[in-house]
Design goal:
alpha/beta; 11 helices; single chain; about 240 residues; 2 domains; four-stranded antiparallel β-sheet; Rossmann fold
């Protein structure tokens, strides 16, 4: 694996007294795409939220670029280049596409790269360029997901956390979206940690994968190996 960018070390987190993830450890290398896969309720969203401290880690440690970050507030983690694109998109519906995209530009690095990153987003999501003056709330689900990912890219991250980007989208839109994620990954400028229920798609665009069940990592390995693993195929692919 390439040099470690993010490392979670036996993290346990949850809501109040309810523990949702327990002793979870995984790594993401520089410019690497890693899939965090599992069924709904497996703990994937909680794991991602705990990385950016939207949920406090109760035990364990999180390291980003060799700096411990689980003691930092969310905004400080974002300024270090770790950006979460949440499940459900969380756009400002009454604002235009371009206004939503520009909402991601808040660090000096993001400001200096704004023109380049905006062109990058419009190149990979041409529909957003066509609809840049349109209200985000009037877009289709697939277009809204493009805006959410685009906003994340405009934040100029070193690591983009994507939480269930294919959720609720038509198969053709999902195919286009994952093709674009592959192209973004191939640029080698940012790493992606992809949380997904769509196991075949997630493993097809990632280099390595971790499988979560009931709040714990139960399987991990190279994505091609996981796709060819009889146990994984039976449990997650249905054959």
């Amino acid at each position: 694996m390439s040099m470690s960018l993010l490392k979670t070390d036996a993290i346990t987190a949850g809501y109040g007294g309810l523990l949702v993830v327990r002793n979870v450890s995984f790594e993401v290398g520089v410019a690497e795409v890693v899939a965090l896969i599992g069924a709904n309720g497996a703990g994937k969203t909680t794991a991602l939220k705990s990385i950016v401290q939207l949920i406090s880690v109760q035990s364990g440690q999180i390291w980003f670029q060799d700096e411990r970050i689980d003691t930092l507030p969310t905004h400080a983690i974002g300024r270090r280049g770790l950006i979460l694109v949440p499940e459900g998109r969380k756009l400002f519906g009454s604002m235009t596409v371009i206004e939503n995209l520009e909402f991601g530009v808040y660090t000096q690095k993001a400001k200096s790269k704004k023109a380049v990153n905006l062109e990058f987003v419009f190149q990979h999501f041409p529909r957003l360029k066509e609809r840049k003056k349109q209200r985000a709330g009037s877009l289709s689900g697939g277009e809204q997901e493009m805006v959410a990912i685009g906003r994340g890219i405009l934040a100029a991250p070193k690591l983009l956390l994507l939480d269930e980007p294919s959720l609720g989208l038509a198969p053709l839109i999902v195919k286009d979206l994952f093709n674009t994620l592959e192209q973004i990954a191939a640029m080698g400028e940012m790493a992606i940690l992809l949380s997904e229920q769509n196991v075949p798609k997630a493993l097809s665009v990632s280099r390595r994968g971790y499988i979560m069940e009931l709040g714990q990592i139960v399987h991990s390995g190279e994505s091609t190996s996981l796709l060819n693993d009889a146990e994984v195929r039976k449990a997650y692919l249905g054959y």
